[in-house]
Amino acid sequence: MKRFARLFTRLDQTTKTTAKVDALADYFGAAPEADRLWTIALLSGRRPRRGVTTTLLRRWAAERAGLPLWLFEESYPIVGDLAETIALILPDAQSESDESLAYWIGYTKELGPLPEEEKRVRVLAAWDRLGTTERFVFNKLITGGFRMGVSQKLMTRALARATGIDEAELSHRLMGDWSPDSTSFEALILTHDPSADLSKPYPFYLAYQLDDGPEGLSDPADWSAEHKWDGIRGQLILRGGRHFLWSRGEELMTDRFPELAAAGDFVPDGTVLDGEVLAWADEAPMSFNALQKRIGRKTVPKKLLTEAPVVLRAYDLLEHEGRDIRDRPFAERRALLQGMLSACPPEANLRLSPLLEFDDWDRLAALRETSRQLGAEGVMLKRLDSPYLSGRKKGDWWKWKVDPLTVDAVLIYAQQGSGRRANLFTDFTFAAWDGEDLVPFTKAYSGLTDAEFRQITAWVRRNTLQRFGPVRQVKPQHVFEIAFEGIQESPRHKSGIALRFPRMARWRHDKPLAEANTMDDLRALLAAYG
Amino acid sequence: MTREPVLTFTERGIYCPAGDFYIDPWRPVDRALITHGHADHARDGMGRYLATHAAGPVMRHRLGDIALETVAYGEVRRIGDASVSFHPAGHVPGSAQIRVEVGGEVWVASGDYKTTPDGLSEAFEPVRCHAFITESTFGLPVFKWKPQDEVVAEINEWWRTNREAGRTSFIGAYSLGKAQRVLASLDASIGPILTHGAVENTNAVMRAQGITLPDTVRVTPDLDAKAHAGAMVIAPPSALGSNWSRRFGAASTGFASGWMALRGIRRRRSGDRGFVMSDHADWDELNRAIAETGAERIFVTHGYTAIFARWLNEQGYDAAVVETEYEGESLDAEAEAEPSEANVSAEDEGKVDPNEAVATKPASKSKSPKKNKNTSGDAGE
Ligand SMILES: [Zn+2]
Ligand SMILES: [Zn+2]
Hints:
CATH topology of the largest domain in chain A: D-amino Acid Aminotransferase, Chain A, domain 1
EC number (chain A): 6.5.1.1
Number of helices of chain A: 19
CATH class of the largest domain in chain A: Alpha Beta
InterPro entries (chain A): ATP-dep_DNA_ligase, ATP_dep_DNA_lig_pp_1105_fam, DNA_ligase_ATP-dep_C, DNA_ligase_ATP-dep_cent, DNA_ligase_ATP-dep_CS, DNA_ligase_ATP-dep_N, DNA_ligase_N_sf, NA-bd_OB-fold
Protein name (chain A): DNA ligase (ATP)
Bound molecules: zinc ion
Oligomer: heterodimer
Catalytic activity (chain A): ATP + (deoxyribonucleotide)n-3'-hydroxyl + 5'-phospho-(deoxyribonucleotide)m = (deoxyribonucleotide)n+m + AMP + diphosphate
Structural class of chain B: alpha/beta
Keywords (chain A): ATP-binding, Cell cycle, Cell division, DNA damage, DNA recombination, DNA repair, DNA replication, Ligase, Magnesium, Metal-binding, Nucleotide-binding
Number of domains of chain A: 3
């Protein structure tokens, strides 16, 4: 555990990618195999089941520190992280531990079935043997949500360096449904048999954002374009008579979208499709709202299946007749895809993402303007001769989103952030004019620079009118441009509307208070885009 | 007969009716007793100032030509019907707790303090009193400082590693107190130490009053940065990441502050390293210091006031929060209210005046925002 805690500290102490890769590669070169495997698992979002509730952990930590529970609860939001709060609040450890990461993971896993008192004894015993960082790690192992500021991509790069195995090959080996309990470092990383796991997806290729329009790209004739659909990216795998649906976050979503089982009846075995899962009615996408009801449900009630049925809008073919065709040009993959899907009836629940016809960029720009009405977020540009790469790589795939919607709104409430931003005011509520009144209609937390957050924090401190717990009502004085991706009716909110992905686009120092937008303006946007 | 309290809390600051003076006032008053030279405690515009001998030079440096009288620690002054004396607060060199006695009742206003010696400041001295006015900048049980020699070793080790890799080390530390404390803890055998103008000006003031600091080189616009590869540079936090610091090429950045105990804040600063070094008391120090005063009444002025006062009440004290305009340990530019200096250009300072951009007046239209009726309900959702 000490070695892993040192790795954690090294990663935490730098913001430089190269230093992080160095630290990880050193670790992979030296740690015992079981620890390496667990580290890979943790860094790719696979973690042991939570064996103790956080309620119990808080109570025990407060007890052990000799503090009332309320004081612990007050400290937690300021620190912003439960595992860290516990690690900081406990008295110094009484002894040390030389056990490995795998040992401590085993220790936390054994807690699950034990009676509460036995759990308490074991957790307190662990805290008494671990230093502050080790304790933090131990608590993270129990509470989950372990983030170390290292992407899977970075981890894979370090592992490639430590093992000498090609990075793309490694990222394929690391995908799929494994856990350190079901495999070993040797089996997973060093001697992997790709046919062993039918469900294994390909790494997704992710597009870069095109900020300045496509004029800088080459000849329009080199490019294919389609709308960028606003759903859930998914990879549908049909192999061995079974089907598997993977999310971009490498989560198996097969059971959440049972509609896609039908694809297997119409598409040959040995097919892997890349596309967007969309809620679908009358041959058109439904609002993202409808799809949202399906997200996060492990099983789907019948009623939802009829209210918000889904299809996969496919736009790429990665495996054809059992062969990986990712290195063939997009145009060729697309032609195969088109041939395959044109033979499918609607019951297959597969739809081809239509191509946009354009001869020049102006025409494409005009088509892009129709995105919002079609329920799309913009257009995707794919180079016709490009292979299907893995991860976010510049050059061949671009997303050209429609400009966000914006309104100018008045800051009326402020609240301190937590964690990373504990001593700054970062959580704001904004209002629009309704006659003489200011009606709050959205919150926003992001978009300002650190310097701007510091500046507004100093202002909030001096211009608080009233406090409601942690929330401060401030003098209505500042106008911010709020950018957002969509607008919906929402009976839950006083204003009757809810914005999608609101953020502060600009601090409008130039805008007088009276010129902020009105509720009527917002209702007009709702009518146009809701 | 009900006696008037020894000290009261007014809109101008902490006031002593028996002596007709204020302690660390934030609005202009005739007579001000000052605990220490930080900008939130020693402000402009007072008729007369009284502070310790050791705090005097920095106050003159910051506030210019003021009517300042200074006293030794422990020396008792009679002001009206009050007896006052200054006692070391251990916060920065020259900092004091101010003891006020009226008719046998003793109150102590402690300003900012820490009880662990830092090697530069006069060591904190507990003062028995009936009522104690305390800060609570780090008044949460998650703040527990490591032994300082461990932090000092971390800083020097980091500098050595950077120097070997040809990188310059930058430490962000506010220019009165923390900067000198970092400076005094450096192992000067590792390499040259450079300082930002704002830090060096304070260094000069302190050296002149007899405080020993390692040799430093002031960073001036014509300094050849390349010739100092691997140096340690100490600057106000606001200067890091500015044009001022860029000319040094490859560099690693660290911040020295109590806030660095929190991982979230460490990451937000996006520096390479955070060193947990504070001039304010941690949780255990606050509790011990309060216990040692023997006071029954505690007033909590700044920091995590509500939480800390509640805790103290549960411990059997009669504790209350008082609103003041003191600030805790700031990581940011606001705390660095330095006088403008001829030899440090505004750009060199890398400083932003938070008041300037914010003070846009709302347009005076008939729309009165006073009546935003259904606002409060939504705020907490
Ligand atoms: Zn201070
Ligand atoms: Zn202060």
